[in-house]
Design the sequence.
């Protein structure tokens, strides 16, 4: 059952990403019926049929055959989508978190050497070199 759910979800995402909706799959029978009508009436093959309804000849075919307009509206893949993106460019923008106080430009180091006067390190072999 989990495999069917995963395959179904993946198929749904694939079809929606290439802009095929569930309604388009339901309306495929209208596409087949209208193609058969064109094949019998005009002798169109499938590529000419696709060109007349989805391609270069669509505007010309719609003007010449107004009586088929109701059938053309029932065909699948007729929906139009719009993608809008908002692009904003800000020139010379001030930072959101603006500092109100002056920060010192010079920083002091955190390291300093202090000579140890402890007797523990005085006669040990691990002494720093005396001459460079």
Sequence:
């Amino acid at each position: 059952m989990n495999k069917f759910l995963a395959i179904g979800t993946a198929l749904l995402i694939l079809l929606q990403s290439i802009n095929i909706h569930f309604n388009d799959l339901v309306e495929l029978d209208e596409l087949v019926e209208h193609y058969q009508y064109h094949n019998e009436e005009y002798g169109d093959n499938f590529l000419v049929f696709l060109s007349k309804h989805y391609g270069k000849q669509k505007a010309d075919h719609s003007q010449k055959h107004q009586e088929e307009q109701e059938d053309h509206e029932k065909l699948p893949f007729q929906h139009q989508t719009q993608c809008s993106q908002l692009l904003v460019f800000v020139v010379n923008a001030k930072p959101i978190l603006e500092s109100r106080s002056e920060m010192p430009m010079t920083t002091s180091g955190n390291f300093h050497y202090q000579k140890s006067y402890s007797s523990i390190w005085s006669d040990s072999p691990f002494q720093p070199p005396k001459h460079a």
Notes: Residues 23-81 form one domain. The chain is about 40% helix and 0% strand. The helical segments are 2-17, 22-26, 28-41, 46-54, 58-64, 69-73.
